[in-house]
Amino acid sequence: MPVSPVQLWEELTMELSNQQILDCLEKGAPFALAAILSHQGSTPRTSGSRMVVMPDGTLLGTIGGGLVEAKVKDACLTLIREKTCQIQSFFLDQELKGSLDMVCGGRLTVLMETLVPGPELISVFQALVAQEQAGQKGVLVSKLSGPSQGEFTVQKSLVLPDGTVTGACLIPKPLLEDICDDRFSGRFPTVHSLNLEEFIIQPMPPADTLFIFGAGHVGFVLAQLAHLTGFSTVVMDDREAFANKNRFPQARQVRVARDYDDAFKGLNVDSHSYIVILTRGHLHDQTVLEQALFTDPAYIGMIGSRTKRDRIYDNLMAKGISKERLNSVYSPVGLSIGAQTPAEIGVSIMAQIIQIRQGGPV
């Protein structure tokens, strides 16, 4: 059976999606979910990284590969048979010494849980996927119950920003209030104790969004790279032949702009947003850039030569936009790596965006 483009990209990213977990649940057979709760020192993956282990040993996602991942896989296969869960720490400097060429020298604490499909658990991940598709956040709460020789069972619920709770986990009122007050707003799971009960609180923020204005050759490559690197994408173009879901199956949204005068209407641009402008004409680029400068994203980049950029900047300064604001735009867009082809230019842009997201040089 042919692999769909979406399936292919999910395999290439090695990032486990909630949709993949939901797909596994809907198949009806128990499987294991391994998640890094905490990491210290040098480790191949960080807190929040997840991996599914199917009963036949098939893996979806990764927690870093190597001997530790193999040990987690073996432990998960045992847990699936016993339908239990476990938290275990792995010391990479000891575990890997003499076993692999690469020694990381850190420590991982991993939650390994058996997920037994049922209506309530499926409803949790259905709600979670729906929140992601809408670009909204949620908080996944896992209650650990009945510890016995280090093993226990888990019940899960999803808490939405409005306080709506989906799932079987009974959340104490003080904890629910803390969640609704945004006391758990990070990106990593937290082990939380309350009245002798233990919970794992996993904020599920929406993915950073890359807004791509221009669905031509560079935009096409950029959208694929954005998906590979964990961004949610919104693509806009004034040509329906370019801006469509068949061309951009991974995009959260594809919009056709009859013109770009209201390019940002209905878009939620915030500090987790990144904007790249590469329309088919200088005037369109200027129109989009002018609107983008009245938003507050993490990044604005515009394609083109310095001559084109300076001409657009002069036009916008004549309209009252300050030079300081214009200087915040990355143009010519992308890292200077000698990129020539659309694929190379896409790589240079995505590399610059990742650099900014990771707090690198500006």
UniProtKB/TrEMBL annotation:
InterPro entries: MoCofactor_Util/Proc, NAD(P)-bd_dom_sf, XdhC_CoxI, XdhC_Rossmann_dom. PANTHER family: ALDEHYDE OXIDOREDUCTASE MOLYBDENUM COFACTOR ASSEMBLY PROTEIN, XANTHINE DEHYDROGENASE SUBUNIT A-RELATED. It holds the Pfam family XdhC_CoxI. SUPFAM superfamilies: NAD(P)-binding Rossmann-fold domains. Residues 24-89 form the XdhC- CoxI domain. It comes from Desulfotignum phosphitoxidans DSM 13687. Residues 210-353 form the XdhC Rossmann domain. This is Putative xanthine and CO dehydrogenases maturation factor, XdhC/CoxF family.
